[in-house]
Write a structure and sequence with these properties.
By secondary structure, this protein is α+β, with helices and mostly antiparallel strands. It is built from four helices and four strands. The longest helix is centred in the first third of the chain and has 33 residues. The termini are far apart.
């Protein structure tokens, strides 16, 4: 008789445990999505070498002199071509400004467009210039587009003070 009563209890406990695990996995996955990752440094690319830099043009030779009858030696073709000097490197503490990069403050990412539009409308009511962009299957709610990251960081601080979780997306 106790085995009959024990089976439903075990089934209920198993379902509650599975529910708790799924909530935990969803929370951790959401935090991983909302936490900005450090940008991966890209190696500097050298400019493609043009044919002029690889093979120098031969210098015009002076007219033959009667006093000198020696034959000129051909240029050494086994020596590697000189590489152009690299431009000045930016100091590690100060990242250089990349041209064409815009920093946007992201306030949320939603699967449904309706939820994203509702969040953008609420932000606009609070005085922020919010808009919705689509990236794959997600609708991202973003505010601003700045060429200078510090300006985006100032706006992010204002949004955090208003109670929003934000990240800065290039």
């Amino acid at each position: 008789m106790t085995t009959m009563r024990l089976q439903p209890l075990v089934a209920v406990l198993a379902l509650v445990g599975l529910f708790a695990i799924s909530v935990l996995v969803g929370y951790v996955g959401g935090q991983a999505f909302l936490t900005p990752s450090a940008p991966t440094p890209r190696p500097a690319r050298s400019a493609p070498a043009s044919p002029e830099t690889i093979t120098p043009a031969p210098a015009p030779s002076p007219p033959p002199d009667a006093s000198s009858r020696s034959t000129p030696k051909p240029p050494d073709t086994t020596a590697p071509p000189e590489e152009p000097a690299a431009g000045p490197a930016t100091p590690p503490g100060k990242p250089g400004r990349e041209t064409g990069v815009l920093y946007r403050v992201q306030v949320g990412a939603y699967i449904s467009r309706e939820n994203a539009e509702a969040r953008a409308a609420k932000l606009r009511e609070e005085g922020f210039d919010a808009y919705v962009t689509q990236s794959g299957t997600l609708y991202k709610v973003q505010v601003g587009a700045f060429a200078i990251r510090e300006n985006a960081e100032r706006l992010a601080a204002q949004l955090k003070a208003a109670g929003y979780e934000v990240l800065i997306a290039p």
